[in-house]
Design a protein that fits this description.
Length: 105
């Protein structure tokens, strides 16, 4: 019952996920920049981290759900994988907040 791991990723769905993530994570910074408001270094770092983390979380989450639907992993494994991805997303946000404490508003 071996399958190619790339078959777990549905390309049109991934394209839509990454476009939506780019709009949600990068939109506010782009809006501030276009309105000639200053954008700080830590805000750019937070935006890039949000983009990468959210896109990766959704991409790997979709792959985990597809693997469960195909019978490659159990429901518990799928839930644990999503929980670890969410914990990683939260942890990275806290690390960036500690990196730039003076610039938090």
């Amino acid at each position: 019952m071996s399958t190619d791991l790339t078959s777990l990723f549905h390309v049109p769905t991934l394209i839509l996920v990454w476009i939506a993530t780019l709009v949600i994570a990068g939109g506010p910074l782009l809006w501030r920049f276009l309105n000639y408001r200053p954008v700080r270094r830590c805000e750019i770092l937070q935006g890039v981290a949000n983009l990468v983390t959210t896109g990766s979380w959704l991409t790997l989450g979709i792959a985990a759900i597809n693997a469960h639907e195909r019978g490659l992993i159990s429901v518990l494994t799928s839930i644990v994988a999503m929980a670890f991805l969410l914990a990683g997303a939260g942890g990275s946000s806290l690390l960036i907040a500690r990196l730039c404490p003076a610039e938090q508003s």
